[in-house]
Amino acid sequence: MKRLYKSETNKIGAGVLGGISEYYEVDPILIRLLGLFIAIITGIIPFALMYLLAAIVIPQRPRTRQE
């Protein structure tokens, strides 16, 4: 089962947009440009609130133990 996690490698800010790009297997630049477009269209404050909510709700990827 595929799960959405915040990105550890494609991280700018909280790693939400990088995590979305990893989930959909899309270039992170495209997701960030789409996020910028949405922020401009809706206004910065609604996008910032949604990003903050996503940063709180989307979990970090669990660390695997190496033995």
Structural notes for this entry:
- It is found in: Cell membrane.
- It is a single-pass membrane protein.
- Residues 2-60 form the Phage shock protein PspC N-terminal domain.
- Pfam families: PspC.
- It comes from Candidatus Kaiserbacteria bacterium CG10_big_fil_rev_8_21_14_0_10_47_16.
- With 67 residues, this protein is mainly α.
- It has a domain at 16-57.
- The protein has 3 helices and no strands.
- Helix 1 crosses helix 2 (28-42) and helix 2 packs across helix 3.
- The protein is globular, with a radius of gyration of 13 Å.
- The chain starts with 15 loop residues before the first helix and ends in a 10-residue tail after the last helix.
- 15% of the residues are buried.
- The model has no long low-confidence stretch (mean pLDDT 92).
Write the layout of secondary structure elements.
Elements: H1 16-24, H2 28-42, H3 44-57
Helix pairs in contact: 1-2, 2-3
In short:
The chain is mainly α and about 70 residues long. The protein is built from three helices and no strands. The chain starts with 15 loop residues before the first helix and ends in a 10-residue tail after the last helix.
